[in-house]
Amino acid sequence: MTALIALFWRDLRRAWGSGALWLPVVFFLLVATAFPFAVGPDAPLLARTGGGMMWVAALLAALLPIDRLVRPDREAGVLDQLAVRGFADEAVAAVKIAAHAIGFGLPLLVALLPAAALLAQDATRVQTLATGLAVAIPALASLAVLSAALTANLKGGSAIGGLLVLPLAVPMLIFGAGMLDPSGRGAMKLLGAASLLLTVIGPFAAGAALRGLRE
């Protein structure tokens, strides 16, 4: 258990070290700054479409650091050492998911406020976005760690990883954007169900991928 706790804190320090803490913040602000240039200075249009764009940006922010989630540990032999000491791959994957969820999730929620202001989102929509993202962050982290485990042996794994998780992330994007529609009352429940399903399945799927790296 001590080794897993140490792994959690080490992954969290790696996520927030060398200025990486601000990566999701900068990414969100770049998206929020560039998007109005694409749609023009139409505030109502920005208000309608900006929320969906922020959900896409959240998915991409979760995938930005997948090259450092699993590959360094595989190359350094950390995964082999944990396996020899009897730790289940599913437990290792769960720890990595938790560390990644905190490592990118907290900066993501901080970046939400200035990004929402740039995209003409009112207070009600900002609150809805914050609630939806808080629910979805564990699932997005699960997809990122799963993608990192599947592509740890491949060069350019981040690009391939995005293609792998896109079909699984589509329901999250649909339900998350649906929450912003006044008529989408059931979207929050569907988002919560989808997030719970991915969060529960994620450690088992990523654990199986970690075992595959040793075979």
Key features?
transmembrane, 215 residues, elongated, transport, 80% helix, single chain, Cyt_c_CcmB_bac, cell inner membrane, transmembrane helix, mainly alpha
Structure, explained:
With 215 residues, the chain is mostly helical. It has one domain. Helices cover 80% and strands 0% of the residues. It is built from 9 helices and no strands. Helix 7 runs antiparallel to helix 8 (157-178). It starts with a helix and ends with a helix.
Write the layout of secondary structure elements.
Blueprint: H1 2-16, H2 23-39, H3 43-63, H4 71-76, H5 78-84, H6 89-118, H7 123-150, H8 157-178, H9 187-213
Number of discrete helical segments: 9
Give a quick account of the main beta sheet: strands, pairing sense, barrel closure: none
Order of helices and strands: HHHHHHHHH
Q: pLDDT average, as an integer?
A: 83
| Structural class based on helices, strands and sheet pairing | mainly alpha
The dominant shape is elongated
Low-pLDDT windows of residues:
none
Q: Tell me the domain tally.
A: 1
Straight-line distance between termini: 25 Å
Beta-strand fraction estimate: under 5%
